[in-house]
Amino acid sequence: MKKADKTAPNRAYTVLKSTAVVVGISVGFWSRPAATVAQTPQPIVSESRFCRSDLASKIDRIVQQPKFRTAQWGILIKPIETSTILYQRNSNRALIPASNVKLLTTAAALQVADQKPRSLPTVKNWLIAVNRYSDNYKADALRRRIGGQPAIRSALEALGVQANSYAQVDGSGLSRSNRATPAALVSVLEAMFSDRQSELFYRSLAIAGVNGTLRSRFRNTPVQGNLYGKTGTLRGVRALSGYLDNPNYGTIAFSIVVNQPGQSGQALAQAIDQIVVQTAKVDRC
Hints:
14 strands; alpha+beta; two-stranded antiparallel sheet; single chain; six-stranded antiparallel beta sheet
């Protein structure tokens, strides 16, 4: 796998006239396969970019809207290749993560399968269904197959995920008794980025504006085709965690979780999407 060129200048994207294009996608250390994008990505032009020092105020304006007065937000945004934290808000708060629990399940499953090579093909076949398409039945079955919660806890501990940063009671995230901090979810993402099975994990995620549970989101924004992630959806709960390609920071690991009973799911998802789009535009200046 090829590392990103850190010396490359800020790049601008050119809008293509066609409404359907095939693009080669490259994030972090991976050379991604071509992906068919339904609509032309929105270019990142210099006028739309802003300095890192402005990111916090832009995100704060989103989460501090009056309609989110009773919301509980947990956010952590961190480039993979540096120790810099671009933004954090209650990153150690344990919230209901909905289907972001599947990141814990699949990361652990790959660790278990790595110790039992014969089981790897089966796990591999299930990963896309669980992560990209959020198949709850297969997620719960995968948890049972690898040995239940004791096996998951042991595997995640080996990855450096603190046991007190999450409470998992199923493999799918359907239970409201699940809890996870954004810090725990980002720890999983960071650990899997350099893991032996990193490519399998990474390629199992949904691609923004292209496929899976992110197929209809981020169309015609700088995020389209540049985010591989896992959504989370329950009543009053929305979450999104994954890897975002930023021209200046390389691969960014992030987790955004919001709990607000009574709020519309559309409002919560739109706010999350706004945060991610702002993160895609941030510059090192």
